[in-house]
């Protein structure tokens, strides 16, 4: 008999093909585009895997070249990929336009996509029960009724089996209204152990506060024991088991901020699963988030554990 596999993380959601303009300027004048993949849940999964956590990803892709690309990339990153190849719907598409050196535009083409057809039947109970942590986001419930039911089903299974539930609000205004999001996501938030939210995302559920720590406390009153408010270039504020904590961001030259929040979440959760104290969780979170900003692409720049110290190293060349 082989050694038992360590309990790791599991996540589910839509990973899309990603087209990115290769030079700055309007999309309509772009002569070529880079092809990749991206999705909030798989971004977090890759961040976790690079930091040493075994990860399972559940999702759907179309029976097309983009779907093949998604599955190849996720498997190449070491994820346990449990995917349904859906021949009745296409793989979703994400397009990024670098309009200026300081601004990005992002469009999604995911209505009726294979990922939007995720359902409770796609979520195996044994996969949830065998994990230490389930991570979900507020994006998947916005895609369709069946995708929302899949997330609720997964969270229910995790609660039944004593699996820690992590939830990143990840509100997308292009997918639904704030009122719709608040209504559909409030139950997931209250059933979660760890919650991540930006300021405006937190205000979907609680009144506005001047102090991010007060905002974290208000969210914690709804159920989660750990609440982290992501503040972008200002770092983060957290309430972890009643302890208030703040961390500044790690200063870097930002090339592409898309995916930084997912990297942040992955860094925090990797340290949580490693049994590290809250201070270490937040330090790794802001470091991983900074790494993601330094490279074009949603996840390509994510660090391994050996690389976490690179951003503060005085010597720029490793020999």
Automatic annotation (TrEMBL):
<dbReference type="GO" id="GO:0016301">
    <property type="term" value="F:kinase activity"/>
</dbReference>
<feature type="domain" description="Carbohydrate kinase PfkB">
    <location>
        <begin position="20"/>
        <end position="304"/>
    </location>
</feature>
<dbReference type="InterPro" id="IPR011611">
    <property type="entry name" value="PfkB_dom"/>
</dbReference>
<keyword id="KW-0547">Nucleotide-binding</keyword>
<comment type="similarity">
    <text>Belongs to the carbohydrate kinase PfkB family.</text>
</comment>
<dbReference type="InterPro" id="IPR002173">
    <property type="entry name" value="Carboh/pur_kinase_PfkB_CS"/>
</dbReference>
<protein>
    <submittedName>
        <fullName>Sugar kinase</fullName>
    </submittedName>
</protein>
<keyword id="KW-0067">ATP-binding</keyword>
<dbReference type="InterPro" id="IPR029056">
    <property type="entry name" value="Ribokinase-like"/>
</dbReference>
<dbReference type="InterPro" id="IPR050306">
    <property type="entry name" value="PfkB_Carbo_kinase"/>
</dbReference>
<keyword id="KW-0418">Kinase</keyword>
<dbReference type="Pfam" id="PF00294">
    <property type="entry name" value="PfkB"/>
</dbReference>
<keyword id="KW-0808">Transferase</keyword>
């Amino acid at each position: 008999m082989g050694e038992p596999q360590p309990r790791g993380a599991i996540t589910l959601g839509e990973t899309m093909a990603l087209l990115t303009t290769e030079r700055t300027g309007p999309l309509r004048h772009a002569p070529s585009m880079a092809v990749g993949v991206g999705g909030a849940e798989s971004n977090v999964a890759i961040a976790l895997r690079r930091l040493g956590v075994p990860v399972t990803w559940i999702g759907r892709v179309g029976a097309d070249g983009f779907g093949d690309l998604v599955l190849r990339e996720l498997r190449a990153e070491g994820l346990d990929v449990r995917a349904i190849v859906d021949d009745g719907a296409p793989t979703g598409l994400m397009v990024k336009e670098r309009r200026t050196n300081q601004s990005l535009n992002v469009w999604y083409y995911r209505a009726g996509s294979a990922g939007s057809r995720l359902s409770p039947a796609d979520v195996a109970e044994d996969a949830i029960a065998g994990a230490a942590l389930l991570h979900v986001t507020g994006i998947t419930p916005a895609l369709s009724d069946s995708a929302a039911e899949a997330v609720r089903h997964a969270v229910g299974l995790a609660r039944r089996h004593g699996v820690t539930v992590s939830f990143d609000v990840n509100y997308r205004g292009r997918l639904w209204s704030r009122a719709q999001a608040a209504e559909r996501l409030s139950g997931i938030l209250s059933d979660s152990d760890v919650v991540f939210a930006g300021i405006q995302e937190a205000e979907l559920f609680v009144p506005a506060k001047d102090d991010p720590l007060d905002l974290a406390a208000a969210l914690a009153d709804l159920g989660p024991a750990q609440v982290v408010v992501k503040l972008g270039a200002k770092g983060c504020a957290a309430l972890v088991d009643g302890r208030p904590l703040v961390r500044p961001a790690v200063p870097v030259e930002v090339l592409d901020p898309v995916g930084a929040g997912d990297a942040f979440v992955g860094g925090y959760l990797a340290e949580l699963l490693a049994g590290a104290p809250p201070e270490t969780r937040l330090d790794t979170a802001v470091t991983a988030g900074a790494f993601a900003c330094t490279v074009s692409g949603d996840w390509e720049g994510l660090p391994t554990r050996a690389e976490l110290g690179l951003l503060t190293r005085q010597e720029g060349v490793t020999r």
